[in-house]
Request: fold
Amino acid sequence: MKLMAIIGSPRRGGNTETLVDKVIEGYLSKTPAEVEKIFVTEKKIGYCTGCLSCTFPPPGTKKCVIKDDMADIIVQLSSADAFIFGTPNHMRTVSAPLLIFLSRMLPIMQFLPDKDAEGRIIGGGFTSALKDKKAAMVISQGDPIFSSSLVHAVLERNFIDFGLRRVGDVISSGNMLPGDAAKKQADLEKAFQLGAALYTMAGMW
Ligand SMILES: Cc1cc2nc3c(=O)[nH]c(=O)nc-3n(C[C@H](O)[C@H](O)[C@H](O)COP(=O)(O)O)c2cc1C
Reply:
């Protein structure tokens, strides 16, 4: 088994990583696994230029034209069995580096066109190399009261688009300073249970 954790926080040892580590611990309590943690801010990942050559025109190249760390990461993602996406709430959405990462995941998807008799594209759908793999989300926010609806929606919708089955999420509040999440026993326990569920449960779309 291979578990990949994508961490969108620029803070190593921060709240997001603390919670993600607990999810990993829960997963490993159920099965031995190879674990790959990716700090997106420590990788060379340029922003998507929107050329769409990876996905369009059909069948697409399945490769991005940008030469950076993302090419290897796409290969790693494709070979993983389960995923954790962790992010702090930054300006009420996912962190900017994680949003760049998500957009650079586009080669994972391929457009399958429907054509008319003359070969004109009249519609179509997408297929994903991650289809039916399982994923969990981790969000850490500074506000004491839930304010991460947009963060959650962005991740949830992207899970659906990438064909990932969402097993569940941990949203931890009141974590303004590094070290705050480490004091939230209930959230840490929930994160551990989420990790276990990531292995044992089927997940949903
Ligand atoms: C640029 C920036 C924007 C933030 N915006 C929000 C916000 O809109 N809502 C919120 O609750 N917390 C916000 N926070 C606080 C972080 O979500 C919080 O400190 C989080 O626990 C950081 O996780 P980390 O330690 O993994 O980086 C923001 C923090 C930063 C640095």
In short: The domain at 2-200 is CATH 3.40.50.360 (Rossmann fold). Residues 9, 11, 14-16, 88-92, 140-143, 147, 175-176, 178 surround flavin mononucleotide (CB under 6 Å). Residues 185-200 form the longest helix (16 residues).
